[in-house]
Design a protein that fits this description.
Layout: H1 10-14, E1 25-26, E2 29-30, H2 33-43, H3 47-62, H4 66-84, H5 93-100
Antiparallel strand pairs: 1-2
Length: 103
């Protein structure tokens, strides 16, 4: 995921208004002091630690919930059982990607 970032720093493309200090306002709303302090502290971290913070926060927003995880786990188990029983056919990934014209 990090390798997909556009050229420049994260602040260049994620927060164009960033110029070394955290604004106390964003989108016309005043940020809570605690948020400003967390952002300022996070910006003092080394790049890898900042990336960990970013990934953790993004994952917390995107997590679909335990029930969805359970359903996907059951789907995976069902597919394994079906494959082992000979009800599903396996395809060579290279041939599939070639047929789809993917690298």
């Amino acid at each position: 995921m990090l390798g997909c970032a556009p050229q420049g720093t994260v602040t260049d493309w994620l927060a164009p208004q960033f110029h070394g200090t955290i604004s106390t306002e964003l989108w016309g709303r005043r940020r809570p002091e605690r948020v400003v302090q967390i952002l300022e502290d996070a910006l003092q971290l080394p790049p890898l630690d900042r990336a960990t913070v970013i990934e953790t926060l993004l994952a917390s927003l995107a997590h679909p919930g335990a029930r969805i995880d359970e359903l996907w786990a059951q789907e995976a188990e069902d597919r394994i059982v079906a494959f082992d029983a000979g009800h599903l056919q396996a395809y060579d990934a290279e041939k599939v990607f070639t047929a789809l014209d993917l690298p």
